[in-house]
Amino acid sequence: MTSKERVARTLARQQPDRVPIYDKFWFETERAWREQLGCPFVLHPERSKYDWSQASPETQDKTLWEVFDMDITEVAWPDYRLRLVEPTVVEETDEWVLERDGNEAVLRWWKHKMGTPEHVAFGIDTPEKWAQVKPLLTPSRERVRWEEFWPLYRRGRAAERFICFCTVEPFEMVKDVLGHELMLKNMLKRPEWIHDVFDTYTRVAIRMFELVEAEGMTCDGAFVYGDMAYNTGPFMSPRHYREFLFPYHKRMFAEFHKRGMSVIFHSDGDIRLVLDDLIEAGVDAINPLEAKANMDVRELAPVYGDRLGFVGGIDVRVLLTNDPEQIRAELHSKLAAAMPYYGYIYHSDHSVPPGVELETYRALLEDVREIGRYE
Amino acid sequence: MSVLSQIAQAVIDGDEQQAPKLVEQALSDGVAAKAVLQDGLLAGMTEVGRRFRDGEFFIPEVLIAAEAMKTGMEALRPQLVAQGVKAEVTAVIGTVRGDLHDIGKNLVATMLEGAGFEVVDLGVDVSADKFVEACQQRSVQLVGMSALLTTTMPEMETAVKQLRGKLDPPPVIIIGGAPVTQAYADQIGADGYGRDAATGAEVAKGLCFKKAS
User: What is chain A's mean pLDDT, rounded?
Assistant: First the structure.
């Protein structure tokens, strides 16, 4: 069975030959492992050297996903900044840089390590300012790094991997423009403004998907990223998810479903309170199922396994023990619960952190291929 | 409904226009500033905290309530100063060294203010030395530390050791953040752990006001 067939069957909750495999890695993990694997990491020469989110491996001959022969390839990742410009440095030290980006947000980034930036200020903080910049948000070929994703796409097609169109949804897009606090407050204070912002970003996201498709980069599924929760629950109530995000998610995911593409939805944190709504909006599988946020596939599969797939849940804290027995027990426990429903894809419960040894991870993948085989 | 109850309700409703108006009305009715604070504004935030803890309120409701409390406090502050009313407990909070995450820490600051603390927010990327220095510059009863990353959690242990080693008496220390657990708090000798902002404020209140009395 090819990777494409394996993942397609899994997302349709039909029995594949084995549990598919996918994962994400912290930058520091990838850098260390690439040194050991003899394919060291090189920063893109034209990118901001301070922006680690741009320090992607697509310019390399092989991604870690390919090194480990994983089943999914991610492409596209449209850039939704208002202005596609290099950030302006406001202040910097040897350790960090404070810069104003294309969304007029001022962020502080570490220079030499990966991590969430500090959100210092947001320039778009009123409906009037939003109205002025809204026309900038137009679909454009310039929003996709074609020179990086075309080679990845072609290699993925040649290896018959399951290719995912990757993007973010409105909550994730807008947090980079208004910031969490302003966005969440104004759901209550100025709901019409927030609706306008979400509607605008949803339109552009759909147009960008159509543009990528028209360029010939047709995909098998969609991987949509939208962090809308933390350890103990979603940022907003289920009622406000229903009012503010559900309509836009439904519209966006419908475009993928029209083309027969399944939707994998990524959110950190505990999203159990909005799972039914996400399923109704069109989500076919969720990722990454953070163990520390009570997203336990052993509890979720019996309840949702007939209508939802699971991509994740393997606790990185267990991987960090580098103890093969503990890791195997973690895999056994969670795969045994999820596999009967056929909709499970192996993935750590977020990203593999530094401290997990390369040999630990290789052994883990062998275990997944063994334990995850369907008879 | 008494004016103090109306102030509390304005906070719960997140009505930042009405809160200061009601505060001024209460003061002109002769209500003592301390009562306006305790039984009006803080009572409102206590209820907000309860609703957040119990899953009735989420972050948007807490944020607008905090704004209402802030505008109410701005109207009240001159009278608090004039009548010599001060916060009983001062808290220093920050995200630990190496970590830039601030959303959770900001929410904790809001909830601690709502619980009656005076809050000194050191921001992000705060070294152990800086926590100690902040405590040496003023009388501090509580230190709250936040970490988002497993790689920055060890900074909490460093800070706990320094705070206990260099301050006499040491402040109450509570910790929180995505990768943090009660077990980790116990392991490093913190006094308390908050699994979220509301719980953290309750734990802090329980530890500090008990100690103060």
Answer: 93
